[in-house]
Amino acid sequence: xxxxxxxxxxxxxxxxxxxxxxxxxxxxxxxxxxxxxxxxxxxxxxxxxxxxxxxxxxxxxxxxxxxxxxxxxxxxxxxxxxxxxxxxxxxxxxxxxxxxxxxxxxxxxxxxxxxxxxxxxxxxxxxxxxxxxxxxxxxxxxxxxxxxxxxxxxxxxxxxxxxxxxxxxxxxxxxxxxxxxxxxxxxxxxxxxxxxxxxxxxxxxxxxxxxxxxxxxxxxxxxxxxxxxxxxxxxxxxxxxxxxxxxxxxxxxxxxxxxxxxxxxxxxxxxxxxxxxxxxxxxxxxxxxxxxxxxxxxxxxxxxxxxxxxxxxxxxxxxxxxxxxxxxxxxxxxxxxxxxxxxxxxxxxxxxxxxxxxxxxxxxxxxxxxxxxxxxxxxxxxxxxxxxxxxxxxxxxxxxxxxxxxxxxxxxxxxxxxxxxxxxxxxxxxxxxxxxxxxxxxxxxxxxxxxxxxxxxxxxxxxxxxxxxxxxx
Length: 473
What we know:
Elements: E1 2-5, H1 11-22, E2 26-31, H2 41-44, E3 47-51, E4 69-72, H3 83-98, E5 105-111, H4 120-132, E6 138-144, E7 147-148, H5 153-164, E8 167-170, E9 177-178, E10 181-182, H6 183-193, E11 202-206, E12 212-213, H7 214-224, E13 230-233, H8 239-249, H9 254-264, H10 274-279, H11 286-293, E14 331-338, H12 342-350, H13 362-374, E15 395-396, E16 399-405, E17 410-415, E18 421-430, E19 433-442, H14 444-470
Helix pairs in contact: 1-6, 3-4, 5-7, 8-9
């Protein structure tokens, strides 16, 4: 069956795509610019891509008649101040285009709207829902509040505020109630609702198992990260001032911050959670969601919080090619260098550490291990689990192997030394280049200070390392 996926480059769309493919659907991805759509290689052979713009009705003629289901995941909240008109126009054009197809079921992901005094953002979502419901197809609307996931705009604001500010001077919306939901649960609801007659022509609220204030969410994140944080509420902070506060402290844009602040003043708690019973879905709570988000390695297709080496084969059996190091909330230093001999470069990577050392600046690696031992860490712990092979779970000096694919030349190491945060070292072959990336997820202000303090040493060490790895003997 063919599924039309709009918003394929958006946060939810990118994560829903592999789920739909795993469920056996043929997916047609709608994007504005094909050059900006870069799904993992393992997905490309199973999808088709349409370049179109739902604000340009004539461009929608490329949508094939032979589609069975569709997801509407288009939002314009951060692109312009007139996003209400644009979102409504986009929804009308989508509805008219799909009325010309054989589509049976359309699913829309919007926002919870249970307050008479809605924000501009939530009013727009409600209007889009009304327009989409007028089509000649079965329609299901799922309404969610804050989505918890690495890369979600709302969650990244929470992360930034807690990680950067030991003391927060916050506006009164900090005490508004909301019912956040983990991205894994959102994807589950979206996927399981498709072609279920029980969901046709209905609207459902979806949320996690906890109802919290924004204050409780911030302090809950701080507790999970072992950070001491104080929140002081002031009643006189205007929405504009609140928006500037978010804009300067976090990585969000001012327009998005303003729209989010307007929505945060409105209580978003599920009224009707019938869909959990209909689909037999149990959602996780806030702390469980954080456990899924703040994992050492990420994947769209698997739960990577329990990565382990296969005891029978010694190889990783639960990982696929979409495995990656966390991106959001991390500081990184990445280098790319062309090599002359691919197999030689991979062999050097696969024999790194232990007796071979790190090819460059070994005395500095040793000094770092010595300092770690002094502060109660494992030290350099000279050695490798296996001198010739690398498997998931192996030890390489003070690193643990999280992922190893020698055929592809992809290795991910995770630091086990004492650090004010988490550190990764990744080696990845891409065409004729070696990409070497050091990433650090700092824990609070102390972690950020540490990163910038050691940055000059990183420049020296990692530049020297990649040169040695790519140099032809």
